Amino acid sequence: MPFAEVEDHVELFYEERGTGTPVIFIHGVWMSSKFFHKQLSAPSKSYRTITLDLRGHGQSSMVHHGHTIAQYARDVHAFIQKLDLKNVVLAGWSMGAFVIWDYLQQFGEDHVKGTVIVDELASDFKWPDFPIGAFDLPALTQFMRDIQSNRRAVLEGFVPLMFKEELSEDDFSWMMDEVTKMPESIASAVLFDQSIVDYRGFLSKIKKPTLLCFGREEKLIPVAAGEHLRENISDSRLEIFEQSCHCPFLEESEKFNKVVEQFIQSLND
Length: 269
Description:
alpha/beta, 40% helix, AB_hydrolase_sf, hydrolase, hydrolase activity
């Protein structure tokens, strides 16, 4: 199995398929690269699909430090350098979008060809001037306490909310296995950091083309979040997946893969 060593001797697990423009898929909080298995199993002829597990997630090093969005972004930068990747497209789902925006804040756009943002807000926090946020302080506090005291029950309720249709027993089983791999201490630490970061003020500075992929079903993230991003990222377009909720790359994988491929081709024109 391939691993790339980044900061502090942390090893990131990754897989890749295909050739061409490298596209790095970055998963959400508590999740893993396994959620992108439909992108790996149907490799594009136009781009090189790369999936990786962030530190503490999936099969990567289960270290107890560095669980901030800023550090995850530094890990992605080190990963890109390690593999000597050029002109990459960064595709971030949920928390993965925050990792991309923090990467751009820290390292700029010089080696980035474009970005794909999947079903995320500019901030998950419900700030006084941002009512579409997912959490206010009492809700976040309770969520963190529940992760510490009764994580499995919480996630058994949360995971189905990511999908429009009911999950099969097999899919629910492997997803629960993935989201409970890390210790609760890591799970609550990264939940806090990813819930309070705020990239609203940074969006206007993004100049590279951006594809926004949002599910029509609003169990977790409203379509208004995608519209807000489209209004504030200058070179962006919004694609709505009518039969999806939070995971269009799984729920409508064929359409998702086609839309991403068309986006990559437009960057090469």
